[in-house]
Design a protein that fits this description.
The complex is a heterodimer of chains A (about 325) and B (about 270).
Chain A: H1 5-20, H2 26-50, H3 59-75, H4 81-103, H5 108-128, E1 138-139, H6 155-179, H7 181-191, H8 193-198, H9 203-229, E2 231-232, H10 239-252, H11 259-277, H12 282-296, H13 301-312
Antiparallel strand pairs in A: 1-2
Helix pairs in contact in A: 1-6, 2-6, 2-7, 2-9, 2-10, 2-11, 3-4, 3-5, 3-9, 4-9, 6-9, 10-11, 11-12
Chain B: E1 4-15, E2 18-29, E3 33-38, H1 44-51, E4 59-64, E5 67-68, H2 74-80, E6 82-85, H3 97-112, H4 132-142, H5 158-171, E7 176-180, H6 188-203, E8 208-212, H7 216-222, E9 225-230, E10 233-238, H8 240-245, H9 247-254, H10 256-259, H11 265-268
Parallel strand pairs in B: 3-8, 3-9, 6-7, 7-8
Antiparallel strand pairs in B: 1-2, 1-4, 4-5, 9-10
Classes of the chains: A mainly alpha (about 325), B alpha/beta (about 270).
Chain lengths: ~325, ~270
Amino acid sequence: MTLDRTTLRFGAVLALLMLASPFIPQWALFMLTIAGANGLVVLGLMLFLRAGLVSFGQALYFCAGAYTTGLMALLLGVNEMLVLLLASAALSALIAYVLGFLLAKYRAIFFGLLSLAFSMILYGLLVKTEALGSTDGFNVPAVTIAGWLPGSGMVRAAVLGVACVVILFCVSFVQGLLKSPRGLVLTAIRDNEIRTEYMGASARRTIHLIYVVAGALAGFGGSIAAIAVGHIDPTMAFWTTSGEFIFITILGGVGSVVAPFVGALVFGIIHTIAFSYSPNTWQMLIGLSLIFVILLLPDGLWSFVRKVRGLKA
Amino acid sequence: MSNVILHAKQLNKSFGAVTAAADIDVAVEAGSCLGLIGTNGAGKTTFVNMITGYLKPDTGVVEFDGRDITQLPPREITQLGICRSFQIPQLYNSMTALENLEVSFGIVSLIANGGSLFTKSDAIVPGLGKTIRQLAEESLERFDLGQYRDKVARVLPGGVRKVLDIAMAMAVRPKILLLDEPTSGVSAEEKFQIMDMVMKAVRRDNTTVLFVEHDMEIVSRHAERVLAFYDGRIIADDVPDTVLLDPTVVRHIVGSARAATPVGAHDHA
């Protein structure tokens, strides 16, 4: 784990955000939290993309994390947010570890579609399970933070605060991973897997590893989303949810560990604006903005930051 | 032969009706340099592929340092100390020459650290006493690639790609290095220069070298021993002077016109 400049700067931004939180409207705090949750899932997708892989089923782990949080709070009476977050990430990572034995063998479209198939299995199971509310899902009870039950005026800011801590931890972890020799191997797998094997590295083990890491990240994301929204339902595992994560990945780009969060925030803003102005055709605005980004900034929004830096230098 | 590092015992391999290896039996002494010659389809690359684990022989055993490695995957064979370069260079095409070597030494570092997640790329690689960057820069210099340091591999000239491919294989500090046609696709003028430089760089560490080569001048210049392949068999196995003038080898591989050129040609005249 490294606390390099990127992580420190990002941490400073998050700290400023929390300091300013009393002045931020409730709806915006909610949008920021959801953007953070999505950003965590996309951080995992970014790892895949570094190795040249795209997962069309990351919603599986997002949903597993959300349901772990919901069920633990509802059935076991566990209300402590940090415990719920860690348990959700751990369970998602465990599922990823088991499925990873199979998925790490596949590449390209086969990897993508197999991951999609697994997420749709979970969706199908949840839809058919009446005890878990079937397609309606169920409400997640209020959570406590280190024993403190925030009042209704504080809950959004408090949840965002905890989310920021988790996000910073995850960003620092992923940054450390990418800067380690293992991060170099990811790019090597994308460029020439056969050569990488002949150099003595195991592509399968590396992909299995990032698959588990991405699973845990999505588990954190799902848990945060479940707590923030206060309600979960099977659409969290539906393919359109996975599609949104890929959308954000392309929007943000893979140039930096911060890019997923920039992408998720912009997606959140577009989504909120589009939804409030045209509730029936908001997807069209989302689609148009993606076309706009692909045409103008094919490497994602983050490449804009790079371009600006390049101009200054 | 007391100091045998690699022993291929009775290797056989067929692809349908084609026999790619028939009773191949070779013992290689540590520190030696072997040239593998033969026409296309004679079984040279099959032999290299069986040693490096890409192909499994139908029967027979490959022993490395006294250990049976026949069924191991290429990755584990590399980790034991056998590495190869490729006839068509296998590079990381989107990366620069320096980055190609950094990835190579990165893998070395990863293995040396037992695959640990929290190794930093700028840390000293255990056992090598230098950072990944330092090792990569050193390798660029050793293989005369300094001027291509920041060029993307995709645009490098053929000869440079070959050398970079070999430099990457040498990153793992193999005990045995297999070079599959190191000079194919390289212009005639560059060939000797490149091969001289590569051999000097490679043999500095007393690495055992097996190289597949079609140019008999290069074979006689660098090989201490030559294996001549024909139709999946080894038809001659001796010092270059003897093998290159062997009547069967001349008839099937070297050709009578070429037989006049290698070292020892004066005996023939």
